[in-house]
Amino acid sequence: MDANINLAATLKLHAAWLRGEEGGKCADLSEANLSEANLSEANLSKANLSKANLYEANLSEANLSKANLYKANLSEANLSKANLSKANLYAADLSKANLSAADLSKADLYKANLYAADLSEANLSKADLYKANLYAADLSEANLSEANLSEANLYKANLYAADLSEADLSEANLSEANLYAADLSEANLSEANLSKADLSKADLRRRIDCNTNYDGARITYYGKSMVVRFAELDPNGSTDG
Questions:
Q1: I need a labelling partner for 186 at 20 to 30 A (CA). Which of 52, 59, 72, 136 fits?
Q2: E-assigned strands of 60-136?
Q3: pLDDT of 143 strictly over 60
Q4: Nearest CA to 183 among 147, 224, 129, 232?
Q5: In sequence order, what are the beta bridge partners of 163?
Q6: What three-state secondary structure class fits 15?
């Protein structure tokens, strides 16, 4: 962390600005070096943290709603239970970050790097994850309802019991993903790659899956577990091939 940054003063002025008080100032920490900084429970709502270095920073339970984190480095940061609703995380690096139980609803995560991130029980409803990298990410029991995951990389991701209802997964890579007991009702799986994915006990009702690759995927079909080989599920849930 940059020793020249007076975080206490910056946060005090920012709090006054949020309250609409005279003399308050919106926190501008763009491109600041805040690596390993302790910002637990800090209120940085609407703050400018674009391109900031927050590597291994402690932001647990922090308020970052509507904050600008464009291209910020949040790799290995602790963001557990943080409020990131409507935050701008466009192209941000969140690799191996702890985002468990965080609120990312309606956040912009376009092209964000979430490699091996912990997003278990996180709220990502209506979040934009277009072309995001979620390779090996833990999304178990996460809420991804109505999220945009089009062209996202979810290779080997853990989506155990995740809510993906009405999510857009068109052209997403879900190869070898764990979707056991996931809710995919009314999800768009058009041209998605689900090869070797575990879809056991997943809810696949009323999904859209034109040209979806299910080869080698494990599904529950009429109460029985089966592996699809060189087949696609038709809209009525039967297999052919």
A1: 136
A2: none
A3: yes
A4: 147
A5: 143, 183
A6: helix
